[in-house]
Amino acid sequence: MSRRPRQVRPPRRVLSGAALTLALTLLVAGGVADQGWGFSAIALGIAALALGGLHLIFPQGPLFALGVANGLAVYICLYAVLGRAAFPLALHWARPLGFLLPVASFVVACWLRRRALLRLAEGLVPPDLEHLPRFARWLMFTAMVGVASLATPINRLGPLEQSIALLLAMAVIAAISAAAVRDVVRLLIDVAAILQQVTARLSHLAVPIATYISIFALLAVVFGCFYRIADGLSQHPLFIQLGEPARLDFSDALHFSVVTLATVGYGDIQPVDDGVRLLSAIQILVGQLLLLFGFAEIMRSTPAVLHELVGSRKDHHHAGPDAGKDPPPVATRREVAGE
Predict the structure, then answer these.
(1) Residues 6 or more apart from 210 whose CB is under 8 A from it?
(2) Per-residue confidence at 223, pLDDT binned at 50, 70, 90?
(3) Which residues lie closer than 8 Å to 121 by C-beta, 6 or more apart?
(4) Fold exhibited by the domain 206-308
(5) Do residues 200 and 308 make contact, with C-beta atoms less than 8 angstroms apart?
(6) Which end of the chain is more exposed for a tag (fewer CB within 10 A), N or C?
């Protein structure tokens, strides 16, 4: 009786990486939608094609895919902001084409050097900081292109001239990304590895984080009630809202309590009574003590986190093709002497 082949499910790490990648690209595409949904859709499509192509080149690199998603998100944001500042009148067809040039150049360079980059993309090399000077070099050249685009009066030219200048600038960046493809790949993998380590640390910090959030919420609600009750019992308004005396409802009091506890100070609601000012000063002092408590709890959890990370690195260092096998026998002194 023949057995059905067992279906191989993708690892949970791959699925979580794909979900984070999709969520990040959708979030960034929605964030740059102020330039039009057309540009957001094109940027999202180019990012999806780039991620799909890189997945075909490196099918066993979930960390690499997550790092590429992070890099694409940063690239989309920088392109949207700097492109509008330096080339405000660029034609509509030039913007997606300029966005495509560095991405396509990077994917093609990865394809041409896929064998040399495969070991990095699979995460077989632990992260280090030795390659950062090389990364800084090509990043400096890329930054010089952006600075030159902003410093020169390109934004005073006509639409066609700005479009040509935009394509030339992105072509230079595409050439830089293709030449430094190994350093870029290594940087993206290190970023993804750091994110993974941070996620592992968060599991140890779950208790202090939950405690901090609970106490913060409790203090915000308690002081919000104090503000609301004091203002309700007073004959005159104790707060100024948008420059005029006003009574606070509970939502306004809770908002003022959260802002005071976080020491943000928006200034939309201000206390004018000495008693309320003293109460807000006490809340600020309690908030600072709560911050010190959270920092102390995080520092208490740091030794356990470092111990686990050191242990995982040792296991990764000793793992190899002979992992799991018995160690070779050690020769005795008589055997060495030939006795």
Answers:
(1) none
(2) very high
(3) 57, 58, 60, 61, 63, 64, 185, 189
(4) Helix Hairpins (1.10.287)
(5) yes
(6) N
How confident is the model over 249-273, as pLDDT tens digits?
A: 999 999 999 999 988 888 899 999 9
- Predicted model pTM: 0.61
What one-character-per-residue DSSP string does 118-140 give?
HHHHTT-SPP-STTHHHHHHHHH
Largest CA distance in the chain: 105
102 vs 79: CA distance, rounded Å = 11
Is there a contact between 315 and 323 (Cβ–Cβ < 8 Å)?
no
- Concatenated DSSP letters for 184-196? HHHHHHHHHHHHH
CATH 1.10.287.70 in the chain is located at 206-308
The answer to whether 135 and 187 are in contact (CB under 8 A) is yes
CA–CA separation, 64 and 252 (whole Å): 46
pLDDT tens readout for residues 151-202: 888 888 999 999 999 999 999 999 988 888 888 777 777 766 676 676 667 6
